[in-house]
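Subject: two folds for Thursday's group meeting

Dear M.,

Sorry for the delay on this. The cluster queue was jammed most of the week, so I only got both jobs back this morning. I'm pasting them in the order they finished. Each block is the input sequence followed by the predicted structure tokens. Could you check whether the formatting survives your parser before we put anything on slides? The first protein is the one we discussed after the seminar.
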Amino acid sequence: MKKISIEEKFTLFTEEWTPKIIAEANGQLVKIAKGSGELVWHKHDNEDELFIVFKGKLTLQFKESSIELNEGEMYVVPKGVEHCPLAEPDTHFLMIEPASTAHTGSLNSEATVAFEDQHWI
């Protein structure tokens, strides 16, 4: 395993809401993504999802509330909780989740990125 520069990894792609895998540990994938605007409402029935913001602001919207994450802040969305990420333009964030986690849970929409399309960078 080589040292990973997360900042450098963010320079390698421009797609938004398209997670890129940068590491794996104990069956957990470490993914980075960029986002602007809203993704889609979804949930993960069997997996928690951890978000850490590196640049910008990410709001995790829930049915009854929302959590705003600024640079250097993190939050774990518990399994089974419906949520919709909303990002300020050019927000960069990291996620840690089990390898079995589908991008938009059981929801299959045009925004969904299939597991086989979530490439290592």
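Second protein, same layout:
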Amino acid sequence: MNKIIFDFFPIALFFIAYKSYDLYVATAVVIAATIVQVAYSWFRHKKVETMQWVTLGLMVTMGGATLYLQDEQFIKWKLTIIEWLFGAVLLGSHFIGKKTIIEKMMGANLELPKKIWSVLNFMWALFFISVGAINIYVMFNYDTETWVDFKTFGVPALMAVFILLQVIFMYRFMPEPEAEAEE
């Protein structure tokens, strides 16, 4: 739960700053919050996850371009870029290595057939690619306020529903507790 709050911290500050000021102030706030988040990870754990570095790099690049050029499209594209990057990495893991990324992340805690790991990984890749596409639709068809609401509440809601569906899907393939006791 702490990780979820920690990961949501920059997004929450972005939303508050946007509602209190404007997109440009919110962009500066989210850049600063992301830097603080990465620095905290480094000082607390002596390591920073790869995705935090990637997010920081994109945030500074796309957010910096938004501020420098006074063009909100850059910060809006950041969401699609990061989602498509996640999707591409997940798809690539089907061809590189013996295990998909989803299996590497969850395999120590969950026993599933190899084919199911592959299906889950593909479903996650498709999810991230779809969210990136939905972001493009929202950013080009709605105003900035709607986009901010989508980014702040819509994307996490989509993620929560998707995770619930994944749990339901995986449950069908998990070994029965009685079968484990007999072995």
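Two things I noticed about the second structure. The first helix runs from residue 2 to 20. Residues 84 and 129 are 5 Å apart (CA to CA).

Cheers,
T.
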